[in-house]
Amino acid sequence: MNQVFGAKFDPKWIGDISLEAALTYLYAVKMTLKQDHARGLAALNDLFRTGDSPTQPLHGHYTGELIALDIAPVLTPIGQKLTAWWMPWLGKTFDATQACGDNLFAHRSLPLARLCFPRYRRFVHENAQIYRAFAFRTWIGPGKTDPDRQVLKIDYNLAENPRATVRRVLDELVQVAKGFYLGKAHLHWWWGQWQMVAYFTLRHEMR
Which of 68, 138, 161, 194 could form a disulfide with 166 if both were Cys (CB 3.0 to 4.6 A apart)? Predict the structure, then answer.
């Protein structure tokens, strides 16, 4: 059993976590991350391993939250400060019939996105507040760092995405409570190594 700032995690919860319990535990993990980053990451991994591939195909809009970064000793705190100050990523949208989707971003970040990705032509206006970009395909398979768990793969390796950056990302998602999902983001470095670099959540409540 792992205890994080008073919130107890029990492996017996696997497949039977209420949304309230998952949110309470996640809140405690956020507090732990501020004091002991390594311990907080271990707690997130514990929670991830309670989950499994979604019981129903994801469809529609899902609110997203970046929970933690784990890039490198110097880069991680810098990235955390930047994302705490400004986080344009809002979540994802899924199409269950086509096994695909897009990421959702705050519209105010569009000029910077166009500057960073000048050759990318798939920015799609959603509404006055949101645009879509960086499509992905989805499929079920064993986790990259958790091969004993079945996860939803969110695969960006599509010809339309920027080759040097976005196409190197592979997200993996598990359901930890009804309508609530925990994800790991993996990055394929240019020298060939895969690394888990972030945790995020998705919740089916954007609309």
Answer: 161
